[in-house]
Design brief:
Blueprint lengths: L2 H5 L11 H27 L6 H26 L16 H4 L7 H6 L2
Helix pairs in contact: 2-3
């Protein structure tokens, strides 16, 4: 099942414990496991002093893990799939690309 199928069709968020929320949680947890594995490989490869690129990659992975954890918290409170700025449901496909997205594309672009 894709993220898109797991999360679309629940306008206004995902009721905690609902089937769509459970499916979205599974996908987010898989994303989390993948990022943790990437971080472990990176840390294992840094047997000496890590270089600047390695430090930047580690920081990026840790930031992504924080975003995934925040998305899991939004699932718990029923606000997953809603833009944090405008409150509208995230557009079709947005969570397919970025399952831990906080904002719709328009609101995200305004923040840059």
């Amino acid at each position: 099942m894709t993220v898109n199928r797991a999360v679309n069709g629940a306008p206004g968020g995902y009721p905690p414990g609902g089937a769509q929320a459970r499916q979205a949680r599974e996908l987010l947890e898989e994303e989390r496991r993948t990022r943790l594995a990437q971080l472990a490989v990176l840390e294992h490869a840094d047997d000496g002093a890590p270089d600047e690129a390695s430090l930047a990659r580690r920081e990026s992975l840790q930031g992504t893990l924080e975003e995934i954890d925040a998305a899991l918290a939004r699932l718990d409170d029923g606000t997953y799939g809603l833009c944090e700025d405008c409150g509208e449901p995230l557009p079709e496909g947005r969570l397919e690309i970025l399952p831990y997205a906080r904002r719709c594309v328009q609101c995200q672009q305004r923040r840059r």
